[in-house]
Design brief:
It is built from 22 helices and 15 strands. By secondary structure, the chain is an alpha/beta fold. The chain binds pyridoxal-5'-phosphate. Pyridoxal-5'-phosphate (PLP) binds next to helix 12.
């Protein structure tokens, strides 16, 4: 049974999965959505005995229906191999009554690797299937982790180029070093004088610039996206929620069919939306706990029904969540209108004109499985320290936000269901902030001294991804104003 995709704003319909992946964003600025969310067609007990790769096939085949079995299995086996430092790919660790789903065992030690290890394979397969003859230019806005993970995936992939824009003062030192030392003749990195929202809006604007896209086409290029607006990012992210449930079942932590909750540290709303898709596929998930940092635009949305980006953008110690325009929320809005593209488009126009919109009560009713919470630095740091002192388990600053919010959720609602917390980054990626959380004051040492101190304290070896950047030469020095992204792209591509 073939599944087709359509734009959340109504301008494109009847698109195949491979075309949607190749294109990234729909031509009308909307996001691609499947016409329906397919149901899992294997039982939970069957899933309990599957490997990560087998689970990936069982889930992804239902969405990517125009890929052959051979194509999809080949993409999966190339993606989820020894690049990951654990055979389980996404281990589930029990600590202090919670289950931390570790999504940071890939090459760049953040959860973006889970989808970006496979996206390049899905995309080059899509290009071949659709006889695309142009060189694909992946334009990426990053709050710190997507950029590196996308480059690690696309570096030196024939027929592709990748250009990454990151906020100059909005990423951690390790994140910045990881990006600026990236190898690969087809990779470019640009620091913009602005925040993540500026980078993401700039990239979306380039996608929608008809004249510029024509010029690109004449020169033999075509844009695509590695951001979570690409359905090829979202679908692989569903897999690990299904896998986590299956592991809980296999380890007899839950009974078959028992409802669990999921808590996700959220920025662009991609990761938690994948959990919602898993629930809609039939996985017994109760509440989707949406955890924000001080940029709590989503918390306000879920508690009031008004999305309002008109507020100060705060730089926090969980920088990958420093976002005021959560792009993937558009997919949930679209679903909650009953897939009324015109209604969704009107709200998105309001967002772009006034920076805010309010949804109807009927729409809120459809979103009631989501529960919003937030944690400032004090709560986040307290959670990291407390869990480490109590259990010896060390988490990063993003995971700390979700862990704290998850605990608050149980206290406030009395809901006793077991909770899977998405653990989105290695603490080594944010060593300064994590050490500050443990010590209770700002550490004096330099970045790599702190990394060594953290290893001594936690007993967790320094990951390869961090060792690599200790002495790697800087390869990227580009910078531009947030209004100059088009000129920068033209210069990089030699237009
Ligand atoms: C990207 C990222 C997030 C936010 O994920 P979204 O899908 O954008 O909501 C959270 N934590 C880390 C470490 C990230 O890299």
């Amino acid at each position: 049974m073939a599944l087709s995709y359509q734009s959340t704003r109504g301008g494109q319909q009847g698109v195949t999965a491979s075309q949607a992946i190749l294109q990234g964003l729909a031509a009308d600025g909307g996001l691609f959505m499947p016409t329906e969310i397919p149901k899992l067609d294997v039982s939970l007990s069957q899933l309990a005995s599957m490997t990560y790769q087998e689970t990936a096939y069982a889930v992804m085949r239902l969405f990517l229906t125009d890929y052959t079995e051979e194509e999809l299995k080949s993409c999966i086996s190339k993606a989820y191999d020894s690049k990951f430092d654990t055979e389980e790919i996404a281990p589930l660790v029990k600590a202090g009554g919670m289950y931390y789903l570790e999504l940071f065992h890939g090459k760049t030690i953040a959860f973006k690797d889970m989808a970006l290890s496979i996206l390049p394979h899905l995309m080059t397969t899509a290009a071949a299937k659709n006889h695309a003859d142009k060189e694909i230019v992946i334009l990426t806005a990053t709050s710190g982790d997507t950029g590196k993970a996308a480059m690690a995936g696309f570096a030196d992939v024939p027929g592709t180029r990748i250009i990454v824009f990151y906020p100059k003062n909005g990423v951690s030192p390790v994140q910045e070093l990881q990006m600026r030392t990236q190898k690969g003749a087809n990779t470019s990195v640009v620091a913009i004088h602005g925040n993540f929202d500026d980078a993401q809006s700039g990239v979306k604007k380039l996608f929608g610039d008809g004249e510029f896209n024509c010029l690109l086409g004449e020169k033999g290029f075509q844009f695509s996206s590695a951001n979570s607006i690409n359905i090829g990012r979202l679908v692989p992210q569903i897999v690990y929620y299904v896998y986590a449930y299956a592991k809980l079942l296999e380890n007899q932590e839950i009974a078959e069919g028992e409802t669990i909750n999921v808590a996700v540290p959220t920025g662009n709303f991609g990761n938690i939306l994948a959990a919602y898709f898993a629930k809609e596929m039939g996985l017994p998930i109760g509440r989707l706990i949406c955890a924000s940092n001080d940029n709590k635009v989503l918390y306000d949305f879920f508690t009031t029904g008004t999305y309002d980006r008109n507020r100060e953008f705060i730089l926090t110690n969980s920088p990958s969540m420093d976002i005021l325009i959560s792009s993937n929320l558009e997919r949930l809005i679209y679903l909650s209108t009953g897939c009324d593209a015109a209604a969704n488009a009107r709200l998105m126009e309001e967002l772009s004109a006034d920076g805010r919109y309010t949804v109807t009560e009927a729409m809120r009713e459809k979103m009631k499985d989501f529960w919003g919470g937030f944690a400032g630095w004090e709560e986040d740091a307290g959670e990291i320290r407390r869990v480490f002192e109590d259990t010896g388990y060390l988490m990063d600053t993003h995971t700390g936000v979700a862990s704290y919010v998850c605990r608050r959720y149980s206290e406030e609602t009395g809901d006793q269901a077991k909770c899977v917390v998405a653990s989105t980054a290695s603490p080594y990626k944010f060593s300064r902030s994590v050490m500050e959380a443990l010590k209770g004051s700002q550490p004096e040492a330099d970045e790599f001294q702190l990394i060594d101190q953290m290893s001594a304290l936690s007993g967790v070896p320094v990951p390869q991804a961090v060792e690599e950047i200790r002495s790697a030469p800087i390869r990227h020095n580009r910078e531009c104003g947030s209004g100059q992204m088009k000129e920068e792209v033209a210069d990089i591509l030699g237009l």
